[in-house]
Amino acid sequence: MKPVTVMTIFGTRPEAIKMAPLALELQKRSNIRALCCVTAQHREMLDSVLEIFKLKPDYDLNIMQPRQTLSTITSKCLLGMDDVLNEAKPDLVLVHGDTSTTFAGALAAFYHQIPVGHVEAGLRTYDKWSPFPEEMNRKMVGAIADLHFCPTVANEKNLQRENITQGVFLTGNTVIDALQTTVVKDFTFAEDILNNLDYQNRKVILVTCHRRENYGQPMTNIMTALRRIADAFPEVELVYPVHLSPVVQEAAHKYLDNHPRIHLIAPLAVDEMHNLMARCHLVMTDSGGLQEEAPALGKPVLVLRKETERPEAVEAGTVKLAGVEEEVIFSMASELLTNPQAYQAMAHAVNPYGDGQACRRIADAIEWHFGLRSEAPDPFTGR
Question: If DSSP codes are grouped into helix, strand and coil, which group holds residue 283?
Answer without folding.
Answer: strand
